[in-house]
């Protein structure tokens, strides 16, 4: 009965995730986040966070260098666009493969240590990769300018361009920037080919993550997080499991990097900086490490603040408070101005502190509490299925 109940819940969770993802342009339009560029970022960084959660959420190994795989994936995809074709499929496959190989090398060395030593090793590798891409490997990465597509690239599978314009990334001829716009209830909805391509890969990434979480392999990773020393005392070698988790996580990061290049064919060293690695850590912790939905929510929250709150200025704030007396409006604009625009990081910091203090399990802990409160109010808290050792997902 427990297995059937769990399988039913997983199926409902997957269906809800698919619907929410595909209806993203409609759901997010009222919040000002329904335009293609931001929707693509939600999907791409959701994939990045899901992959990181497989390592951090299941094994407890905290990597501060995952941006290296994101950057490597971007470079691999752009080189594929330059040499083979502007079709994004080969570029995405190449990005995943290169991300997996690179993570296998770094993981093989870094996983010889655990705890803070592992974290520092991954950070060191990421910074080494950043500096190599920025200076030493300039013939491959184009240094600080970044790797871009040009008219004289070979593109052996595409042939010569018909005109003098730079070619566009496409999915078997359908441009990634192709957008269908319509109006609905006074809102302008944008249905973008690039977003739906990223959304389908996000759904696939989520499904694979779900299967990993429910598999014996996922159970072994949880055991590593619970007490790795005790497992070692039984004679079990945990390194193959942790290395496999690290490689899978690196492949997810490579996929995200490839999608960044597919939506904007440019790869730069800044994607490999330690700040990008720290960002995915924040996404996972904000949403809820070790949960399925949490990292996606955390990625969406951070990217929303980065793109929406950072665009606010004094004029927008003044229009927002113009129904109040002039003196009060001026005071509120001055106070709120510190939390938006260039100060959006301050708002994110306040939210992060509040979640860590009041919801240490992340946003999903809040969802779990609301669901328990709702069940208690509706009389659904009793019964044999009420106790659960699984985290809210």
Molecular structure report:
It is a single chain. α3 packs parallel to α8 and α3 (36-59) crosses α11 (274-287). The protein contains 16 helices and six strands. The protein has a two-stranded antiparallel sheet. The protein has a two-stranded antiparallel ribbon with strand order 2-3. With 393 residues, the chain is mostly helical.
Strand content: 5-15%
By secondary-structure content and strand pairing, the structural class works out as mainly alpha
Shape: globular
With helices defined by DSSP (H or I, 4 residues minimum), what is the helix count? 16
Characterize the largest beta sheet: strand count, sense, and whether it forms a barrel.
2 strands, antiparallel
Which H/E pattern describes the elements?
HHHHHHHEEEEEHHHEHHHHHH
**How are the strands ordered across the major sheet?**
1-6
Which features would summarize this protein structure in a list?
5% strand; two-stranded antiparallel sheet; 6 strands; mainly alpha; 393 residues
List the helices and strands and how they pair.
Layout: H1 2-22, H2 24-27, H3 36-59, H4 67-83, H5 88-110, H6 115-136, H7 138-141, E1 147-148, E2 170-171, E3 174-175, E4 179-184, E5 187-192, H8 193-214, H9 216-233, H10 239-263, E6 266-267, H11 274-287, H12 294-307, H13 314-320, H14 326-336, H15 344-358, H16 363-378
Antiparallel strand pairs: 1-6, 2-3, 4-5
Short description:
The chain has 393 residues and is mainly α. It has 16 helices and six strands.
């Amino acid at each position: 009965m427990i297995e059937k109940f769990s399988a039913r819940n997983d199926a409902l969770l997957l269906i809800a995730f698919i619907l929410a993802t595909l209806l993203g342009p409609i759901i997010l339009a009222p919040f000002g986040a329904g335009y293609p560029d931001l929707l693509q970022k939600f999907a791409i960084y959701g994939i990045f966070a899901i992959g990181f959660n497989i390592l951090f959420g299941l094994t407890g190994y905290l990597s501060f260098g995952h941006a290296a795989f994101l950057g490597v994936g971007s470079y691999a995809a752009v080189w594929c666009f330059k040499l083979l074709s502007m079709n994004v499929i080969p570029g995405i496959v190449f990005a995943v493969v290169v991300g997996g190989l690179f993570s296998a090398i770094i993981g093989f060395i870094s996983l010889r240590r655990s705890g803070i030593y592992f974290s520092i090793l991954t950070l060191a590798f990421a910074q080494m990769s950043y500096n190599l891409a920025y200076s030493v490997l300039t013939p491959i990465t184009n240094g600080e300018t970044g790797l871009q597509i040009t008219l004289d690239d070979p593109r052996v599978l595409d042939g010569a361009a018909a005109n003098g314009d730079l070619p566009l990334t496409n999915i078997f001829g359908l441009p990634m920037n192709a957008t269908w716009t319509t109006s609905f209830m006074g809102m302008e909805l944008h249905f973008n080919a690039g977003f739906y391509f990223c959304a389908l890969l996000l759904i696939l990434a989520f499904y694979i993550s779900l299967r990993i979480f429910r598999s014996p392999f996922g159970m072994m990773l949880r055991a590593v997080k619970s007490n790795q020393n005790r497992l070692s005392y039984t004679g079990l070698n945990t390194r193959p499991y942790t290395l496999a988790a690290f490689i899978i996580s690196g492949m997810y990061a490579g996929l995200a990097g490839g999608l960044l290049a597919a939506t904007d064919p440019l790869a730069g060293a800044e994607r490999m900086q330690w700040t990008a690695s720290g960002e995915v850590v924040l996404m996972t912790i904000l949403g809820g490490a070790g949960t399925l939905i949490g990292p996606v929510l955390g990625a969406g929250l951070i990217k929303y603040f980065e793109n929406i709150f950072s665009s606010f200025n004094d004029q927008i704030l003044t229009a927002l408070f113009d129904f109040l007396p002039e003196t009060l409006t001026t005071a509120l604009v001055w106070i709120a101005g510190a939390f938006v625009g260039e100060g959006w990081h301050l708002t994110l910091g306040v939210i992060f502190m509040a979640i860590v203090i009041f919801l240490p399990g992340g946003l999903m802990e809040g969802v779990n509490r609301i669901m328990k409160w709702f069940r208690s109010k509706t009389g659904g808290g009793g019964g044999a299925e009420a106790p659960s050792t699984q985290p809210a997902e």
